Amino acid sequence: MGYASSGGATLHRITFSPRTLGPKDVEIDIWYSGICGSDLHILEEDWCKLHGDVVAGHQIAGTVAAAGPEALYKVGDRVGASLIIDACMNCDECKAGQEQYCAMKTLIYNDKFKDGCPAPSYGGFANRIRLCSEFVYKLPDEIHFSHAAPLFCAGLTTFTALRKYGAGAEKTVGVKGIGALGHLAIQYAKAMGTKEIFAIHDSDVTSEDATKLGATRCIDLSNKDDLHAEHHKIDLLLVNSFNESTKWEDVLSLVSNHGTVVILALSKVPISIPTMILVHRDLKIVSSFQGGRKDIKDMLEFTAKHEVHPWIVKVPFDKINDALELQKKNSARYCIVLEADESKEKENNAEANKPAAEQYMKED
């Protein structure tokens, strides 16, 4: 059973037939499934066309319910899965452990398996999923199921980018956009021993949260005094959000000479930057996409060791359309997680009959 769309972000319940359980496959009983902004873009066909009834969701945490004879995990193991569920394993990218850049990769939903399986890939907005165990990851005991789900996108993306571009004691890190990605980026940067962490925000609420998360300085891009005070202070800047009104000259004024700007936000909005700023100051504009299998394992281990955890808003699976509305409004702090066992949540929630926008907005 899953919640599907054939176009648009209003989902309906369906029954579907998954791929046959292969020798290396596991079937996962999904306990928690995260909602990401990219899910909305795909469901609304902003980025690609949907093929039939599409069950989205690429941040999964649950237990192994069945396992093939050659699977890496056994029934009962706590596991999770991310966006990439298969790759060729023979190309240069795969050999380098960067399976997310493989031209033959398979995505967890709205995609076709490359092994000839006639069934499409179905994602995590479902009660169960079947995946190759080589792209499934065991959860450390220290990580709670509900906290695990967002790690497989927001956590992975920010951890990989920070590590790849050298966050640490010798760097000052900036985080633009304090949402699902940004609030985890601050925690990872702090755990990596970063000298200073600048949270670049646009509201008092995110400023207060950023300080709680570990930011040492908050910058309001609309405040000229802030821009002047922190001129050329940031060595490594992660950009988690931008739009048509983003003033890139102001953003780049915060970056030190020879600094690096890492674009993590997925947007159709073009980035317009005068090349003179880049050339005269030796600034680098780069990007990073998710992470490979080793990155995921390293991220989970690091997360458990340093007690990084997402701020989550739990919503019962049968309220998935309410959850998608919250995601559209960007009003949750900061990661929305669908919870399969909604009955326990309802029994303990005296406000269960409130509208979702009130009931779930501020839990953390």
Supply database-style keywords:
2 domains, seven-stranded mixed beta sheet, Quinone Oxidoreductase, Chain A, domain 1, 364 residues, disordered C terminus
How do the helices and strands line up, and which of them pair or pack?
Layout: E1 2-5, E2 12-14, E3 25-35, H1 37-43, E4 54-55, E5 60-67, E6 78-81, E7 84-86, H2 92-95, E8 106-107, E9 128-132, E10 136-138, H3 145-164, E11 172-176, H4 180-191, E12 196-201, H5 204-213, E13 217-220, H6 224-229, E14 234-239, H7 248-253, E15 255-263, H8 275-281, E16 284-287, H9 293-306, E17 312-316, H10 320-329, E18 335-339, H11 342-347, H12 356-359
Keywords: Metal-binding, Oxidoreductase, Zinc
Domain Enoyl reductase (ER): 8-338
Pfam family, one: ADH_N
Explain the overall architecture:
The chain folds into two domains: 218 residues, Quinone Oxidoreductase, Chain A, domain 1, CATH 3.90.180; 122 residues, 3-Layer(aba) Sandwich (Rossmann fold), CATH 3.40.50.720. The protein contains twelve helices and 18 strands. The strands form four sheets. Strands 3, 5, 6, 9, 10, 17 and 18 form a seven-stranded mixed sheet that branches. β1 and β2 form a beta hairpin. The relative contact order is 0.14.
